[in-house]
User: What shape does this take?
Amino acid sequence: MELNEKVAIVTGAGQGIGRAITLKLAANGANIVVVDVNLERANETVSHLESSERKAIALKADISSTKETEDMIEESVKKMGGIHILVNNAGITRDKLLLRMKEDDWDAVLDVNLKGVFNCTKAVIRHMSKQRYGRIVNIASIVGEMGNAGQANYAASKAGVIGFTKTVAREFAARNITCNAVAPGFIETAMTDSLPENAREELTKQIPMGRLGKPDDVAESVLFLVSDSSSYITGQVVNVNGGMYM
Assistant: This one.
């Protein structure tokens, strides 16, 4: 049990990649705070964790709100006794070509995907600094490295997450806090499930490994980065994309 009794907060953990990450961390000994803007989905994830025999709680928070985020972190510390791991997974999309993209589309995506990472990291880093230990993993995206038509807002937010990750890594390395990013490619989630079959086939052709990734592929990378096996790794971006971007 690599993460025995460590407390992990995972945002956007109500479904998809976030849920897979919580299951992986719990299976390896962590107690979990499941955070999602949708409390019902967060509770569903907690129910999936019952068989792991780890402590798990569900908390609702809009991480684009500084106040809600700070309150969520303080409640996590109060109920779980501390914070050792933060996985910033929550994110949204509002895809449109640039000339059709409204200011609200831009602001909403940057507020959740980038400001949300800032809010969560700033709120937990105080606790991690005091205990001189912490593992932070930010879920970026292949799109933040290579761009994608129709996703100027999403690509900008994820590129920002990568720059933020490297800066946090530099600022807090001396406190034994590591900060890394995982950049998934195209993963089998509800979003990709809704693609027309021909679009899915064309997408798959662009991936050297010939398949979309699975949420567990991302979760395995997160597990490595929060474990002691990666204690000398910080400020890095781990690409989990089947070779689509190298």
